[in-house]
Amino acid sequence: MERRVLVVDDEKKMQVLITVCVSEAGYLVQTAATGLAAMDRLKAEPFDLVLLDIMLPDVDGFSLIAQLRHLQEDVAIIMLTALGETEHIVRGLNEGADDYIVKPFEPDELNARILSVLRRKGGLASRKGEEKQLKVNEKAHDISFAGQSLGLTKTEYRVLHRLLSNPGRTYTREQLLDLAWDRQVEIYDRNVDAHIKNIRDKLEKVGADSTMIQTVWGVGYKYVEHEGINQ
């Protein structure tokens, strides 16, 4: 079954460019030039993914994310915009976007990002090389690799579990702080960095590749799927 992609951009030339690029990768593409038109599309039929510009004539893309998710909770959303400052990227991710791509873009990168986001719907890990994947025991609050427990603290478990739940998605430090700590206690972004370092150390101790937890400079962290064996 072909995946359905909605392109939301008010520039006709950009609509055509994105449509050609994404269609050649095998997706069914429809377009919308305004936020209202995008919502009408989602009301009429389901989509797997939305490519969303920020600067629309009737609404900004940031505020549109929640409205689109209200119409279709499981739709994936990638921001595709000329606004490339870190503050815009962080805001887009905090608003709930699954990824953020800055124009101009390379067609191969765009399609790779789309594929990565859509794969997240398949669960925590790919079945390929399953015996070499991290496995989560939610009842025991434990994560293991090749049968060996990582021995994570409660906070480390929460952080790693969230990253594993959405492969390829970048989480800001703010999002990880909200997840893992009582915000009534004074904490700092670097607390997250320290816990990520501990998680990476524990991955290496059981023979996993710690680079599966990648730093997105100036933003936060993400988990990238691969077999993760240190040779």
From TrEMBL:
<dbReference type="InterPro" id="IPR039420">
    <property type="entry name" value="WalR-like"/>
</dbReference>
<feature type="DNA-binding region" description="OmpR/PhoB-type">
    <location>
        <begin position="126"/>
        <end position="225"/>
    </location>
</feature>
<dbReference type="GO" id="GO:0006355">
    <property type="term" value="P:regulation of DNA-templated transcription"/>
</dbReference>
<keyword id="KW-0902">Two-component regulatory system</keyword>
<keyword id="KW-0238">DNA-binding</keyword>
<dbReference type="Pfam" id="PF00486">
    <property type="entry name" value="Trans_reg_C"/>
</dbReference>
<dbReference type="InterPro" id="IPR036388">
    <property type="entry name" value="WH-like_DNA-bd_sf"/>
</dbReference>
<dbReference type="GO" id="GO:0000156">
    <property type="term" value="F:phosphorelay response regulator activity"/>
</dbReference>
<dbReference type="InterPro" id="IPR011006">
    <property type="entry name" value="CheY-like_superfamily"/>
</dbReference>
<feature type="domain" description="Response regulatory">
    <location>
        <begin position="4"/>
        <end position="118"/>
    </location>
</feature>
<dbReference type="InterPro" id="IPR001789">
    <property type="entry name" value="Sig_transdc_resp-reg_receiver"/>
</dbReference>
<dbReference type="Pfam" id="PF00072">
    <property type="entry name" value="Response_reg"/>
</dbReference>
<dbReference type="InterPro" id="IPR001867">
    <property type="entry name" value="OmpR/PhoB-type_DNA-bd"/>
</dbReference>
<dbReference type="GO" id="GO:0005829">
    <property type="term" value="C:cytosol"/>
</dbReference>
<keyword id="KW-0805">Transcription regulation</keyword>
<dbReference type="GO" id="GO:0032993">
    <property type="term" value="C:protein-DNA complex"/>
</dbReference>
<feature type="modified residue" description="4-aspartylphosphate">
    <location>
        <position position="53"/>
    </location>
</feature>
<dbReference type="GO" id="GO:0000976">
    <property type="term" value="F:transcription cis-regulatory region binding"/>
</dbReference>
<protein>
    <submittedName>
        <fullName>Regulator</fullName>
    </submittedName>
</protein>
<keyword id="KW-0597">Phosphoprotein</keyword>
<feature type="domain" description="OmpR/PhoB-type">
    <location>
        <begin position="126"/>
        <end position="225"/>
    </location>
</feature>
<keyword id="KW-0804">Transcription</keyword>
